[in-house]
Amino acid sequence: MEIKPVDQNLIPVFSGDKTTLRSYVTACEYLIEEFLNPNPNNARMARRLLMIFMGKLEGRAREAVDANRIPTSWPELKEILVHSFGDKRSEDVLVHDLNNVTPKTNESAQDYAVRIKGTLYTLLSKINLTEDNLYIRHMKINQYNQLALRTFLFGLDMINEKLGMEVKLRQPGDIETAEGYAIEIENYNIDISKSESQ
User: Fold this and answer.
1) Which of 122, 156, 161, 195 has an alpha carbon within 20 to 30 A of 70's alpha carbon?
2) Any idea where the domains of the chain sit in the sequence?
3) What is the DSSP letter of 19?
């Protein structure tokens, strides 16, 4: 199989911005899956992919690689980039953070959900960057999505106990669904209040 320019263009330029590290790594791993996994012993293809990946590094990312040993494989390059630009907190700390997101005074259910999802995104980015075993990665992703949902439902009771109960009765499967239910119920209650005051 030959790597074409259109395939190379799938890899974004990475300049050391931690918010784009995950998309860079995901794109690189897609090409590895596409071109190397059919024949994992193809050393020539592995070197060629590594050169393509390194060619997409600029600025601080290039400096980080140049300051370390020159990587001879994708796992080495990924390790340098994750160590240099990934979140420095451990998975355990991020799980603790997710489990302990509580609503702020007068915070809406939607704003609360957005904060939880931001914390979840940080944790899932860490998992996607550091966990190479796909089975374990998917298991953790499912587990942490459920933790985000439980955190939201628990905090929803602090915002408005009746709202929390109504959302729980609908048995949402994930935080996005629970957030949607909460917004729908809040909007319905606002509409009822407006019509009663007229």
Assistant:
1) 122
2) 5-85, 91-197
3) T
Question: Which neighbouring-strand residues pair with 57?
Answer: 14
CB atoms within 10 A of CB 38: 10
Task: Please give the radius of gyration of the chain, using alpha carbons only, rounded to the nearest integer.
Answer: 22
Residues 6+ positions from 28 with CB-CB distance below 8 Å: 11, 49, 53, 74, 78
With tokens 């050393």, the residue in question is 43
- Report the alpha-carbon angle 57-59-64, nearest 5: 75
Which tens digits make up the pLDDT trace of 115-166?
999 999 999 989 988 888 889 999 999 999 999 999 999 999 999 999 999 9
Q: Give the three-class secondary structure for 10.
A: coil
In sign, the C-alpha dihedral spanning 173, 177, 183, 185 is: negative
CB 54 within 8 A of CB 64: no
Query: H helices within the chain, ranges in order?
Result: 5-8, 21-31, 43-55, 59-67, 74-85, 91-99, 109-130, 134-159, 161-169, 175-197
